[in-house]
């Protein structure tokens, strides 16, 4: 299924929407770039990042108006497990293709952020991509409280991008289509204002003083009109400097960077938490309840297998960063 567009229609097939910087030339579709692709990637590269289940994959499906792609199988489960790039067919800006790059969720319990950053860098080197033109950070507006994991995800994101590149960052707030009551709407609008005045304050610039556009925080309402409008507006903003993870791609290792130390500290925290979980599971297995219940033991054994798998992933990342040696 594709979004049927009139090539001469500058609205992108969305009624009432006038596009200025992106131009549809036919039915829109998202073409996945295979991992073994050996061709060129030449165009606008937009990286999608954010906490697990924040709506990154849903945004791609909305751009092409196709909810049957299977990208966002269940955004609450954080479906994306590997970096996956898509070329939006029949949509260009200034004669260049548009690529949307989906990434695993930050603070995903199964995927360390260092692995995700390493994948992004390797992908850029493979296709000789020097610059990520725009970076979208997705945030669920319904989460009225900043949990520990969301705060950590935000801090890691800021560390790998840097304030100097903030004009290429766009914060995409999601889940507006899930608001049903006036109370929910009031809380969502309050949090939207809080994002601007508190959580992203350090990335914002006083436009009156510096005459520069402030960090863009926008509302994505889960429609094609909304998604295309966001793309159209973001490509016209100032570029700014390199993201920190873009600097010295082929010559510098993560562990030698400032943000690498933050990622490394996060890995140690993950490792400690996983070891503590294993200890609790073992204590539960030794309990009288588990000894008397085959079903409970089976559940605990399965849980232990999953946690041990996560431990191996974290230890592999620590080893890659030269920070782990198993005794």
From TrEMBL:
Molecular function terms, GO-annotated: GTP binding
Listed InterPro entries: GTP-bd, P-loop_NTPase
Domain called G: residue spans: 46-117
Full protein name: G domain-containing protein
């Amino acid at each position: 299924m594709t979004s049927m567009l009139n090539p001469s229609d500058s609205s992108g097939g969305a009624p009432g929407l006038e596009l200025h910087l992106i131009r549809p030339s036919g039915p829109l579709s998202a073409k996945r770039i295979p991992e073994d692709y050996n061709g060129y990637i030449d165009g606008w590269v937009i990286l999608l990042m954010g906490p697990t289940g924040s709506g990154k994959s849903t945004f791609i499906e909305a751009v092409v108006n196709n909810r049957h792609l299977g990208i966002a199988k269940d955004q609450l489960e954080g479906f994306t497990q590997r970096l996956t790039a898509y070329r939006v067919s029949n949509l260009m800006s200034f004669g260049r293709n548009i690529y949307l790059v989906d990434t695993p969720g930050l603070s995903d319990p199964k995927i360390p952020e260092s692995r995700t950053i390493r994948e992004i860098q390797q992908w850029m080197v493979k296709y000789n991509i020097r610059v990520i033109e725009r970076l979208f950070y997705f945030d669920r507006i319904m989460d009225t409280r900043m949990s520990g994991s969301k705060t950590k995800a935000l801090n890691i994101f800021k560390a790998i991008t840097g304030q100097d590149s903030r004009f290429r960052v766009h914060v995409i707030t999601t889940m507006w289509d899930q608001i049903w009551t006036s109370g929910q709407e009031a809380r969502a609008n309050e949090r939207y204002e809080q994002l601007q005045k508190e959580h992203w304050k350090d990335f914002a610039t006083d436009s009156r003083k510096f005459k520069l556009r402030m960090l863009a925080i926008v509302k994505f309402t889960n429609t094609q009109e909304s998604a295309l409008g966001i793309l159209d507006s973001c490509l016209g903003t100032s570029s700014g400097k390199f993201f920190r993870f873009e600097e010295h791609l082929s010559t510098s290792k993560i562990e030698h960077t400032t943000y690498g130390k933050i990622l490394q500290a996060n890995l140690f925290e993950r490792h400690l938490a996983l070891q503590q979980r294993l200890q609790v599971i073992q204590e539960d297995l030794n309990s009288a309840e588990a000894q008397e219940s085959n079903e409970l033991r089976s559940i605990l054994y399965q849980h232990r297998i999953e946690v041990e798998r996560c431990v191996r992933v974290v230890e592999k990342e620590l080893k890659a960063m030269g920070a782990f040696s198993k005794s």
